[in-house]
Design goal:
Layout lengths: L1 H20 L4 H4 L24 E9 L16 E7 L7 E7 L5 H10 L9 E9 L7 E3 L11 E6 L7 E3 L16 H4 L3 E9 L9 E6 L2 E7 L15 E9 L10 E5 L5 E4 L14 E13 L2 E5 L6 E4 L9 E12 L2 E14 L6 E2 L2 H4 L11 E11 L4 E6 L4 E5 L11 E11 L2 E5 L6 E3 L2
Parallel strand pairs: 3-5, 7-8, 10-12, 13-14, 16-18, 19-20, 22-24
Antiparallel strand pairs: 1-2, 1-4, 2-3, 4-5, 4-6, 8-9, 8-11, 9-10, 11-12, 11-13, 14-15, 14-17, 15-16, 17-18, 20-21, 20-23, 21-22, 23-24, 23-25
Amino acid sequence: MRREKQKLLCLALLLLATCCATADTIWDYEAVNSIGFGIHPKVNADASNPANKVTVEGVVIGGSHEILNPGPPAAMGIQYTLFIQDDTSDRGGIQVWAGSWFYGDPMWTDLRQTDYIDVQPGDRVRVTGFLADAGRGKVVINHRHSNNPDLVFHVEILGHPGMPDPVLIKSVSECNYFDETRSGGGELYQTRWVMLHGVSVGSGAWTNNSLLTVSDRTGSVGLLLSAMGDFTGNPKPEFPISVVGIFDQEDTTAPYTEGYRIWVKKQADVARALDFCREVRTCALGEMSSLKDKVVSRVFPGFFYVQDETRTGGVRVESSRAVAPGNRVCIHGSVCSIGNEKALNPRYLIVQESDEAPKPIGVTSRELWCSSGLDVYGLLVRCVCTVKEKQEGGVYLLVDDAGKTIKAQTYGFELPSEGTRVAINAVASQSEGAPLLLIASTSDVEVIQ
């Protein structure tokens, strides 16, 4: 009998492990058919059967007070919603929604304390409830538009890992079409934190809760400004922008294959889209600006430099994020000043694939002092000099072959002794109007015999 019980226990554990290994994900729940309607067996399944409830976990990319006003106290038009992105893969996200008018003030106020709790962006949450598709082009977790207490979904906070990096959508044409296989198009990006760079804003009012469009040469897609945002009172951008937001869909007419949009939470999630690094110099301090597909040239303590692939220019980025020379990055942030140099302080930073580290441009003091008409500031350069003198704070004086003095800054290491001839790879910068070479490591210093 004891042996039989052990066998049964082992079998139960095996079945449990199998169920856990094959548990459905948010991505599975979001599967759609050819008209964009949810096809998972638990979508709109019998709510009288508790077994039809689902449990999902993920990171909140749209907090409870960022999109719609959830109260309390309740009043007509107050809604609770979260957007949750799957943090265990690069696919899948789901919206959670409830409307106060189905409950009335007393019950809504109670639910806001117990089940529909306040959640911040970057929180990791677990949500348990029923799946529904009411014909919006997306599967959600909601209370089935009922005040039945058995249909209430429950939200709990598991931790706070922080917001994920947005996913770069390279062009509008990549996201504004329907594909039921979800190998591309809007269904692939739905309820994910995304960035579009270099799009222009169409007609319409730049105010909270306004639906506009953004477009590039490949097409256009919706841009929804959050009702809880700070857009009202700010001017509508008249220049190409970078925008970061939640990729969403709202199509109320069958087939539910259109209505894609980016739901933007704050004005700071909209930035001027720049083509070249040196354009940062023309931006005002504090202005939100964005660069796409720039190459990391060198990394320093607390900051790094990026440059255009064509080596047109470079710019400093104030971030301790782990990057390496050759990484391609997208930066969306505010313009700041470091000494007499303008830099970017990232609000969002996307680290993409890695290529070979960029090659330095050979320069002399003529280029470093801008006497040749060539602007190399912010770029990775190579300069042959002689070490002249060590000063305080890791600063050295160098002399090039034309007899011109150049400063160099090191970070925790020393250059060879005075009189040594060296070839230095460094980022060209300035200090008090004079050239300054920023040297990242000893591997960038070559002694010339």
